[in-house]
User: Which sequence fits this backbone?
């Protein structure tokens, strides 16, 4: 990835992080889109797996700093997701938008599952309901938002195969 | 090349493993060690993001506050808009309470549900039936006056015709009892030659007609018309309507007046149904105007009686004055024989008192009507002329 693409990716990720901390509180939906996950996907498919894991770790740790009860859980989940996406990009990620959306769904759902299990606030049926209903719904909304963002940013982005 | 690839793979694996390890360590860190790390992150990397989130939260709070304020304003506006309706309903219920306290017994309060929603129905459904004591042909009244009559009774519901129903009739009279007639619905085009399709005429469909009023009886606009009690169903004294004016019909021997109903059909919501016993016992002093109706009728009768008495007294006085003057003339002309003639006249004139033989007292001039006085004076003058001629004749012969 050349410098120009790097700068573009950093700028777009910044915009998505900005949206995460501005648009998301404004919407205040129970199942709100997670722009950090979308930013991580954008970055992960353009860097090496190790770097993607590190970016995920930093993003997760930063978000964990605002939630002391689950400090480290978000970093763990983001690390796993970033590394996986970066590893799988050559296999599954082409330039297909819907495929990107599907992986966004899986990534966000995995993140929610890790966070819910790590929080230990819910158990049994309540945890199952949260994972199957609200987490999947939040993953779906994130996937939709990610697909829209990718379609809007397609002229700016250039996906490079590994 | 393969070595480089293996190196990068190893590098990625090391980075991934390090991140996983750090994440797990972060999760198991004791609070006293976790908090400095998290605090440093919040103060450095996350601080601008938190400020962004705070700004967004403020925006959202302001938006929600404005929305709540708008909702509060709408609620207040809605409440303010409902105030006149509530006031009107309150006033109507007060009137119903007042009517109930005046009726005292023999009435059944009911809610009036407007028919099937068609304007032409002219019927209402009452929320009380035979279980509550309502019978067929029971009267339906409101604080303002006549509403209609019950036609069909079910155990829990009853149907009543309104005053605008074509079958509605009530015998009515004016407040002073000078004009009587039959009140019936005003059906535009029925007698005036106009067509009922006009919306103007359709709006007149809720008016009433007072038919069959004798031609000598005239009613002014604004006069209140009451039920007369002559029909046998509606007792005397329930307000039916207010005269709007006279309308021309083909009936040349009677007048027909257009009435505005006392009860506004749009305001028929709560009504009273009078039991047959209550209707037959009379409704004196239930409506405020009934007392004035009776007092007005009594006043008219008393005034008529006093006028008749005054006229009779004046006539008697005139007769007495005529007799007295005749007696005086006869006495002057014929001497003492006149008194005997006067007595004979007094026998034939009723009311004439015996004339004293000496100087008779003159009749009181104030009690004489002008025409009778003039007639008496003319008669007296003629008799005097005859007496003068006699005297003249007599004196002429006596003079030297």
Assistant:
């Amino acid at each position: 990835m050349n410098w120009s693409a790097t700068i573009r990716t950093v700028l777009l990720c910044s915009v998505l992080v900005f949206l995460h901390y501005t648009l998301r509180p404004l919407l205040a939906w129970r199942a709100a889109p997670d722009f950090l996950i979308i930013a991580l996907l954008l970055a992960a498919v353009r860097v090496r797996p190790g770097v993607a894991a590190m970016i995920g770790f930093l993003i997760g740790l930063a978000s964990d700093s605002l939630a002391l009860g689950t400090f480290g859980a978000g970093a763990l989940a983001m690390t796993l997701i970033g590394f996986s996406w970066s590893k799988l990009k050559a296999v599954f990620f082409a330039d297909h938008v819907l495929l990107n959306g599907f992986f966004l769904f899986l990534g966000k759902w995995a993140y929610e599952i890790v966070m819910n299990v790590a929080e230990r606030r819910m158990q049994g049926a309540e945890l199952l309901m949260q994972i199957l209903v609200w987490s999947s719904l939040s993953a779906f909304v994130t996937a939709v938002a990610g697909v829209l963002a990718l379609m809007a940013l397609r002229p700016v982005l250039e996906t490079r195969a590994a | 090349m393969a070595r480089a690839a293996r190196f990068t793979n190893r590098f990625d694996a090391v980075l991934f493993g390090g991140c996983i390890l750090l994440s797990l360590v972060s999760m198991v860190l004791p609070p006293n060690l976790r908090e400095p790390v998290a605090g440093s992150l919040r103060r450095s990397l996350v601080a601008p993001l938190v400020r962004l989130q705070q700004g967004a939260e403020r925006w959202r709070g302001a938006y929600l506050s404005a929305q709540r304020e708008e909702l509060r304003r709408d609620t207040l506006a809605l409440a303010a808009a409902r105030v006149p309706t509530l006031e009107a309903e309150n006033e109507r219920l007060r009137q119903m309470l007042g009517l109930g306290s005046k009726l005292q017994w023999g009435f059944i309060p009911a809610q009036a549900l407007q028919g099937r929603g068609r304007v032409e129905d002219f019927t209402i459904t009452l929320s009380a039936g035979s279980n509550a004591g309502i019978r067929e042909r029971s009267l339906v009244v409101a604080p303002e006056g006549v509403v209609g009559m019950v036609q069909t009774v079910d155990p829990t519901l009853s149907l009543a015709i309104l005053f605008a129903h074509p079958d509605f009739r009530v015998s009515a009279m004016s407040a002073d009892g000078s004009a009587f007639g039959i009140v019936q619905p005003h059906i535009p085009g029925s007698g005036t030659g106009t067509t009922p399709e006009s919306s103007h005429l359709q709006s007149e469909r809720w008016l009433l007609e007072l038919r069959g009023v004798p031609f000598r009886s005239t009613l002014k606009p604004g006069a209140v018309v009451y039920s007369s009690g002559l029909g046998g169903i509606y007792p005397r004294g329930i307000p039916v309507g207010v005269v709007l004016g006279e309308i021309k019909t083909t009936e040349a021997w009677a007048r027909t007046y257009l009435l505005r109903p006392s009860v506004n059909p749009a305001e028929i919501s709560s009504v009273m149904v009078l039991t047959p016993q209550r209707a037959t016992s009379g409704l004196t002093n239930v409506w405020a105007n009934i007392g004035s109706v009776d007092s007005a009728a009594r006043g008219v009768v008393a005034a008529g009686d006093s006028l008749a008495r005054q006229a009779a007294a004046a006539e008697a006085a005139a007769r007495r004055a005529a007799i007295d003057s005749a007696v005086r003339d006869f006495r002057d002309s014929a001497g003492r024989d006149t008194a005997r003639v006067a007595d004979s006249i007094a026998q034939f004139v009723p009311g004439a008192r015996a004339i004293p033989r000496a100087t008779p007292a003159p009749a009181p001039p104030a009690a004489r009507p002008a025409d009778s006085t003039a007639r008496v004076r003319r008669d007296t003058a003629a008799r005097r002329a005859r007496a003068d001629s006699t005297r003249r004749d007599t004196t002429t012969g006596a003079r030297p």
Q: What stands out?
A: Residues 49 and 330 of chain B are 139 Å apart (CA to CA). The interface with chain A takes residues 8, 11-16, 19-20, 22-29, 31, 34-35, 37-39, 41-42, 45-46, 49-50, 52-53, 55-57, 59-60, 63 of chain B (CB under 8 Å). The first strand of chain B starts at residue 107 and ends at 114. Confidence is low (pLDDT under 50) at residues 192-197, 289-294, 348-378, 380-400 of chain B.
